[in-house]
Amino acid sequence: MNNIARKLILSALTVVLTVAALGTTTFAWFTLTNTAQVQSFQAEIVTDTGIEVSLDAIDWYTVLTTAIIQDYITNDTTFTQFNHLTTATGSGTFYTLGIGGVSASPATQGWLQIPLYFRSNSATQINWSAVTLSATPGSWLSDVPFTSTSGAVVAGEPVSINASNAMRISVTGSLGTIVYEKPNGTDNNVELGVGGDKSNVAGGGVGDAGAYNYYYVKTGALVTGTSSIVTAASTTVLSENPVTTLTTPSTYGTTYGGQITLRIWLEGWDADAYNSILGQMITAGFIFNGV
Questions:
Q1: Rounded to the nearest 5°, which phi and psi values hold at 96?
Q2: Tens-digit pLDDT profile for residues 122-147
Q3: Phi then psi dihedrals of residue 242, to 5 deg
Q4: CA 38: distance to chain centroid?
């Protein structure tokens, strides 16, 4: 290994999540029992000379192929499907969000979580430098008039949806947790923010526009806890954000080593968290640099 390895490029961690169709034409915000089933996963992680990556700190690679990552997910009993979740931290404490409000106990599954271990004889820090998050746009026909994030919708009118607008990505390492959300305007996304009283259906609250407004129009009620929402603070721009320090491990067989945890989830409070997005494909890409 040599100093050229300081520029670690995980050039293509591309996640393709194909989720199951709902099998119904009636869409509502968390009134159905459907959750998103991952049907396929495509990923490749490539490292530069001198840095190796692993999913278990036992088998090390310069390239993590789709087959290796798929095998990891297949054998991961903690993840079988996406669920409508919310979190104030993005670092592992998730709660299920449903008609009755936020669950009292932490959820045990419902998000995708992948550990990434690094070892090197030269790099001492891992930065999260770039991310992409997208989905093929789609639409569904609303059965009632409501207000979407794009404006008033009449019954029978198609409503644009984009599953990636409701997704969040976080990376946790020794230097803390970074949560990513798509910025305002990208694919017509509207940033959720960190919380507060968002129950004002008449102006400015979660019930004002989007999936929750549809739910409110359908039910005439707000979900318990709407007045005190706390969601994870997120960034919409990444630029060499430090996520973990590589220290001297005794078991990695190199001078330096460390770990990060990558998480992907559906933020239940998001204005684009319609049940209809569960039929979409989501693609996420990541670049990490070692310095």
A1: -75, 135
A2: 888 888 888 888 888 888 888 889 88
A3: -65, 135
A4: 13
pLDDT of residue 276: 78
Instruction: Write out pLDDT tens, residues 182-230.
Output: 998 888 888 887 665 566 655 555 567 888 888 888 888 777 777 778 8
Residue in this structure with the two tokens 């949560």, named with its chain if needed: 179
**Range scoring the smallest mean pLDDT among 27-36, 162-171, 173-182:** 27-36
* Neighbouring-strand partners of residue 245: 125
Average pLDDT, the chain: 76
Q: Side chain identity at 236, as an amino acid letter? A: T
Answer for the pair 235, 178: CB distance below 8 angstroms, yes or no.
yes
Paired with 101 in beta bridges are 98
Looking at residue 181, its pLDDT comes to: 93
For residues 22 and 121, give the distance between their C-alpha atoms in angstroms, rounded to a whole number.
Answer: 49
pLDDT, tens digit, for every residue of 246-273?
998 778 888 899 999 999 888 988 888 8
Q: How far is CA 41 from the centre of its chain?
A: 15
Q: Where are the domains of the chain?
A: 3-136+163-189+227-290
Cβ pair 30, 45 in contact under 8 A = no
Residue showing tokens 């770039």 = 130
CA distance 58 to 257: 12
